[in-house]
Structure formats: structure tokens, C-alpha cells
Amino acid sequence: MTLYHFGNCIALIYIPYYLTYKYSGLSEYGAFWKCAQAGGIYMFTQLVKMLILATFFPDNISETGSDIVGEFLKATVDLADLIGLYIVLNGIPGKGHSKVLTAGIGWAIAEVILTRALFLWVGARGAEFDWKYIQKCLESNISLVQYIATTTLIWLWSRHDMKKNLKPLVTALLVFSTYKILILDMIVKYLMIGPWMSLLLKSVVTLVIGSFTLVIYAGLAQAIGIF
Amino acid sequence: MWMEEVDEFFKGYMPYYVLIFLPLFIIISPINPIQASHEFPIYRMQHFDLHGIPHGSRSASFNLEARSLTNWKSLRHCVVARIKDLTIDQFRDIRVKAGALLIIVPDDLSVLSKEEKQHISILENTIMSQEVSIPIYFIRDSPEFSEISTEIAEHSAVNDLKKSAAEALFSSIAANGYQVVVSPSTPSIRKDVKIATIQGQLVANSLKDKKISTIAIVAHYDSFGIAPELSFGADSNGSGMVIMFELIRLFSELYEDSKTHGKYNIIFLLTGGGKINYMGSKKWLEDQLDSLDGSIIHESAYIICLDTLAHSDSLYMHVSKPPKEGTSSHSFYKELKAVADRLSNLTVEGVHKKINLADDILAWEHERFSIRRLPSFTLSTVKTYRDNHRNSILDVKNSLNVDRLVQITRVIAETLANQIYNISNKAILGKVFDIDRSHIEAWLDIIGNQPRSTQILSNKDNYLLKIFRDYFDKHLIDTKVFYASPDKRDPEFNFYDVTKSTVNIYSVKPAVFDLFLTLAIAVYITTIYFLIQKFPAFYNLACCLTSSAKMR
């Protein structure tokens, strides 16, 4: 609509990131450069992913759901994200909360800047009003939670001192988060629910994953004595 | 503190996000699905000057809010209306007080009822009668645009008193508005206007020294309607052209064989600018009469102008001076009457109208020739030159009666043949040599499927004119093209460029809506802030859960 509307969208998308960065205590550690480093690795990972997609799935223009196997394979490429996050985690010294949060927030901020900023600048300033910009902003907020949860899960997965019986649960959650977008898109398509309901669905699913992760993390953190 | 109590409440009974999403859902529950930007082709109203008098709409671009006929108020609104809903009084109001006018024209104009056609015709006349300063555009009705126009009409009902105050308040905040944007370049005078007139002839055998006279058959090829891009002119003057093409086919065949050579030269003249005071024939006449070596037009028996020949079952012969007994025009009239009686149920009538020399605008094409004292008349199925039928967008191919056109062609061809071979009361056209209906229909298809407004056909190397020229070349000899261009210093006519454009329609929200959105976002962010601030509480909760599990 107008520049004002663009301002609204920017506020909606970036202020939660800023608040998370500020109040999670990262700013006190001076973790800014670590976040930037995570962003750099994010970019590299995306480049690798794009190369793989362009090589093996040249015609990825088909609509979601028309070719389930193809979509599944395409989503499999997102496993590269997990490897990228693992590299980020290894590159960051320190332990516990700050390590996980730095990696997760850095990664998510890089994503939100690279994928959303241009989209909003081009779209939300136009004369046309469309709810989809607001929806995308809210979706980005959800993905912040998702990335922090994923990072935590990867960190948990790489720990050897975690209880053996929790390992399958962590792996399952990791795989589920990778295919989450595909699965949710399918559900949205087959149930034919509107964009707002699908947003709600995404947020609920993400919060469930997040709370599971939090509980497992809390258990391990207590066990090895970081608070 | 109370804050913590509230916190506890949410933790216990209701998740936080309900606080955000519930109001959001209530405010924005989409009544209508999201509309993306729409693009439609639109056609601009006529815009030209003739004899120094400006005609049509003067401006072209606008960026205004769409409103319906009942709801517009000021210069900031673009009125969107269906052509059949727009009354003449409303138009007069809009002309001075609104910002722009977008008129929806039905996709198929031939299926309208008689009253609707009458209304459109009168409206066209009214809109054209005065110079208009606001941009006026026409758009073809389509299902997509229909949806938008319905919504514009509904939105307009917001100020309806029947609705409750809450509904009115809500819709004044969240209602979908539409912004209509048309941004072509500023219309400027076209410099490259060249109105072509195509001439071709068939020459009689001149073995004897006898003077051979000439028959000229004239038809103008352009059409006129309220919007240049919507003027298809199937009848005016598509029918005249089609008859001329059929005559060319018949007589070129006859003149090819020396046994069937007629005793007249025949000139076929396809003139341009017929709707702008017959500029094409004017220019042609000037060239012919003012040239030093003289022209065969001097020896003309008569000049027949064909104009709008499928409108009704009566054929009118329009003259400026009643033809005297013994002249060839008079014998043509008598012959025409006899043939019409013999072959058809057409009635033939002579109409006499003196040339009004005080008026710059001539009524019929033959007046151009009559002024120069050449014997001429116009054949038409329209009784008066004021008939709106000749200048209407309603004149489309589907509403043309092909049977009638074929019949009239037959009558005219037979009359001409009788005159040329000096036979009467005998049919020349028969089974072997006859009017070809498929030929007529083929030409109607070519002519009737594209707008033929003067400004559209007046550019150089026009494709349609090339087809005409090729046809003349194929059948006639000595084909020439004459061009009429406006004078640089004192132009008799001027055309302006933009005839069509694209409209962008954006769905927009009122400005208040943005403020409300800001408020909602502020609430949301505040909630996020508290969530992050209270995150240790969640963490502790998780710790409790795990430790209690360990205890067990």
C-alpha cells in the first residue's frame, strides 16, 4: 500500500528478532560477530542447496502436491540445513545457552534478511494491499522459534552424554522439522484451509516441537550442570 | 504483582498467542479472498479536432478511487458504471464534477434489447456532442471485471442507513476499496497522419471515337464510434465496402473479356476520412480537378456513393438536386426502382436535401462531388444523415443482416449492369454469373473483425489498407493511392495518439486501517517482549518437569 504499510511489516518481522537477540542475553556476550558468521555459513549452505536443486530438479515449477515423490526428494535437500547448522555449532566456542542461541538466531536472522527484505520492499510498498505480506511476516516469526529449536536439537544430538533412550526422539524431531514445511503444505492443500488457519497450524506445530525440545534440553542441561 | 498474576492466568488456562491471534482473526477474518492487482485493456474515448473544433475527451491519465454511480462525490473519484445504467443527466453531472469515468460495455453488443440499443445510441450522441475535460474510458465486460464492479457497488452501499453503526464502523475501517490507475502518455497531436484513398478503374473499349463517359463508385472505409478501438462499423461503412468489392469482382470479370466490355469506364474509389467530413474524397477531388491534364472524372455520367446499406429494407437515393428527366442519374433511379421491384421486396425512394453551405460538416459523401457540380448521389438504407446508427459502437458484425446485404448487392449490381450494357427488364446476373455470398461473407469477416476508426487506419503501411490495395491491384488497372494529411499551419483535422491503454486496479484499504494495523502489531510485539522476558519461567517449568520425572 504505502511506505507506512511497509514500515508496519518491517516492524512486525524484525522487532521480534531484535528483542530475542537483545533479551536472551546475547548482546551482553558480544555475540554479534558470531551471529554474522552463522549468517555467512547460512548463505554458503543455501548456495550448495541451490546447486543441488538446480542439478537434480531442474523443473521445480510444479505445484505442491502434484508430484509427491519429487517434492519429498526436494525437501530432503533441506537436510543440508542441518549440516550447515552443525558446522555453525562447531564453529562457536562456549557452551550451553549462548552457543545454541547464537547459532540459531544468527541463522534465522540471515534467512529473514535474505528472503524477506527484498520481497517486502518490492511488494508491501506497492499500491495493492494484500494480506500475504502480513502473513509472511508472522510466518518469519514462527520460523525464528523453529530455527532455535532445530539448533538445540542438533546440539542435543551431537552430545554423547545424552540419555540413550532420548536419542531416537531427538532424531525423529529433527527429521520432522526438516519435512515439516512439506507435510504442512500437503495438509493445507488437502484440507483446503485458508492462509490464516494454515498460519495458526504452523505456529501450533512449531510450538509443540519447541516445547518438546525445551523439556529435553532442560533435562540434559540439569544433568550436565549448565544453567 | 498483578502482572505475574495475569501471567499465571495465561500460563494456566490460555496460551498467550490466543491474545494475539483471536483479535487478529476477528478483525481480519477475510470476508472476500485476497485480490491481487488486476489489469484490463481499456479503450479511450474519441479525441480529435475537426475544422478547429475540439471533439472528445481531452485528458488520458488518472489515478483515482473507484466509486459507483450512486456513491461518487468529488473530483477524487472515478465513476465506474455500466453503459445501460448511466443516464444522460448522470453523465452531465459526472462530466463536470467527477475525476474520471469508466464505462463498462457489454461483451456482445448485438444481443441487447431494442430499448438498450436506443439508450446506448442516444448516450453516445450526448457524450460526443460536447468537449469533455475528464478522461473517459470504455472497458469490455468480463467475469473478472464484473466481480470488481459488483464489489465497488457493494462498497458504495457502506453509507447505507439500514446498516447498524457497528457494521458501518467496521466497514469504514476494513472495507476493500479499489484504486484505478491509468497512466498512458499525455495525448499529443499525431504528426504522421496519412489518410489513404485508393483508386482503381476498369476501362471501356475505345475503338470508336465516341466519347466514353465514366461511372464512379465511391465508398468510404472508416468507421466511427464513441471509442476508436470499439468502432467496428460493420454496416457503416462495412456494407458499402463489401458491395463495392463485390461489384469490383463482377465487373472486372466482365471487362476482362472483350465481348463483354461495357460502354462506360468505371472508377472505383475507396475513400478514407469518411467520418471526418469526407476528407479523403475532398483531397482526391482537389487532386483530380486541379490537375492540369484533366481527369476522366470530368466526363462522369454519375458518381454513386455507397453508405450504410444493410440497415433497413428501404433503399434511399440521396441527392442534392432532383435529377432532371433525361439525365443518366434519372435513368439510374428509374432502373433501380424497376430492378428492386423485380428482384426483391425493397422499396426505393429518392430523398432530396440541399447542401447547407453555411455548415462546415457535409451530410453525405455525394455532397463533396455535388459542390463541384458533378452529378452524384448516395445510396443508403438510412433515411436521414442524422441517424445515430452510422456513428455507433453498436454497429458490429453480429447485428448485420447478411441476407439483406446480399439482396441489396444484387439489386445494385443488376441496375449497374443494365445501365452499362443498356438493357432493361432482363436479368444479367443469373446462375452462371451471380453474386457470391461466400465472397461477401469473407470480406465481412476481414472488415468486421477489427476496429476501423479513421485514426487507427491513418498510420503508414496499415495492414488492412494493404489488403484493400492488393485487391484493387488484382482486379483493376491503374491503381493509385492518394494521401490526405492535415496541413502543417492550418490543419483541418488533428488526431491525438492514445486510443487504448491498460488499467491497473488495486485493491486498497482505507488509511485508518493502517493505523489499526500498527496498533495490532504493537500489541503483538509487546506480547512477544513479555514472552521473552518471562522465558526463564518456561525454562524453570521444563526443569521441574524433567526433575519430577527423574524423581520417579
Protein model, in words:
The complex is a heterodimer of chains A (227) and B (552). Chain A is built from 9 helices and no strands. By secondary structure, chain A is mainly alpha-helical. In chain A, helix 3 (32-56) packs across helix 6. The mean pLDDT of chain A is 83. Chain B has helices at residues 2-12, 16-28, 88-97, 114-129, 143-156, 165-174, 238-256, 279-290, 328-343, 366-371, 402-421, 437-448, 454-457, 463-475, 511-533, 535-551, and strands at residues 38-44, 47-50, 53-56, 62-67, 77-82, 100-105, 136-140, 177-182, 195-202, 214-220, 265-271, 300-306, 314-319, 347-352, 376-380, 477-484, 493-495, 500-508. Mean pLDDT of chain B is 84; it is low at 29-35. Helices cover 39% and strands 20% of the residues of chain B. Chain B has 552 residues and is α/β, with parallel strands linked by helices. The chains are: A mainly alpha (227), B alpha/beta (552). The interface between A and B is large, with 36 and 39 residues. Chain B: The chain crosses the membrane at residues 12-31, 511-532. Chain B: Residues 209-382 form the Peptidase M28 domain. Chain B: It is a single-pass membrane protein.
Identify the CATH homologous superfamily of the largest domain in chain B: Zn peptidases
Question: How much of the residues of chain A is beta strand, in percent?
Answer: under 5%
Multimeric status of the protein: heterodimer
Name the overall outline of chain B. Answer: elongated
Strand order of the largest sheet of chain B: 14-13-15-12-10-11-9-16
- Alpha carbon gyration radius of chain A: 18 Å
Q: Which topology of the largest domain in chain B does CATH recognise?
A: Aminopeptidase
Count of spatially separate domains of chain A? 1
Low-confidence spans of chain A: none
Uncertain runs of chain B are: 29-35
Secondary-structure content class of chain A = mainly alpha
- The tally of strands of chain B reads 18
For the termini of chain B, the CA-CA separation is 34 Å
Count of helix runs of chain B: 16
Class of the largest domain in chain B in CATH? Answer: Alpha Beta
Category from helices, strands and their pairing of chain B: alpha/beta
Supply the CATH architecture of the largest domain in chain B. 3-Layer(aba) Sandwich
Mean pLDDT of chain B: 84
